[in-house]
Amino acid sequence: MPADPTVIADLEAKSIQYETMACDPELADTTQFCAAYGVPLDRSANTIVVASRKPEGHVAACLVLATSRLDVNGMVRRRLGVRKASFATAEQTKELTGMEIGGVTVFGLPIGVPVWIDSQVLIPPWVIIGAGSRSAKIKLDPGQFVGLEGVEIVDDLALPISA
Fold first, then answer.
1. Residue range(s) defining the domain that contains residue 114
2. How far apart are CA 135 and CA 113, in angstroms?
3. 32 and which of 23, 27, 63, 111 could share a cystine (Cβ 3.0–4.6 Å)?
4. What sign does the CA torsion over 82, 87, 91, 97 have?
5. How many separate domains does the chain show?
6. Does residue 56 lie within any of the structural domains?
7. For the chain, what is the radius of gyration of the CA atoms?
């Protein structure tokens, strides 16, 4: 399956300029994708769904560069306003978004799911993000995220990965 039709419809509705890239589903995870398709890690951005544990029921979709790690226990937990939060499981992610890990994206999400994008994602002239399926990726200018309804650009949402 190529890019998810719901994701494409959302991109089109928001007038986002993008390119779709086919991807071997076995190579959809970031490290393997970047190695196989010659994409630098600092041009790949991951959408990570976070779910609260105490209290349950709070979620957010966070987009961060592959060269960083999401600050789940700091910034994300505080922004959710909860005591405990963690990465959503693959099952929770699929149930909430309809997408599998390796294809999750910030487009085509259910109404009401907050989208938080780390400000570092806006720096490169282009990034690769999920396309809603493990069989495709989306290439776009991340500057297009600015001003989108339901999207917040957040400083310090992610921390650099230490060497």
1. 5-140
2. 24
3. 27
4. positive
5. 1
6. yes
7. 15
In tens, the pLDDT along 125-158 reads 999 999 999 999 999 999 999 999 999 999 999 9
Please check whether residue 157 lies inside any domain of the structure: no
Q: Are 150 and 107 in contact (CB under 8 A)?
A: no
Burial class (CB in 10 A: 0-12, 13-18, 19+), 54: exposed
Question: Quick check: 118 and 157 in contact, CB under 8 A?
Answer: yes
Q: Is residue 55 part of a domain?
A: yes
Task: Dig out the tokens for 89 from the structure.
Answer: 């499981």
Bond from prior residue into 160 cis (ω within 30 degrees of 0): no
Q: What is the pLDDT of residues 58-94, one digit of tens each?
A: 999 999 999 999 999 999 999 999 999 999 999 999 9
Kindly state whether residue 50 falls inside one of the protein's structural domains. yes
CATH number, domain with residue 21: 3.90.960.10
Backbone φ and ψ of 133, nearest 5°: -145, 165
Burial class (CB in 10 A: 0-12, 13-18, 19+), 117: buried
Q: What pTM, to 2 d.p., does this model score?
A: 0.95
H/E segment holding residue 80: helix 77-80
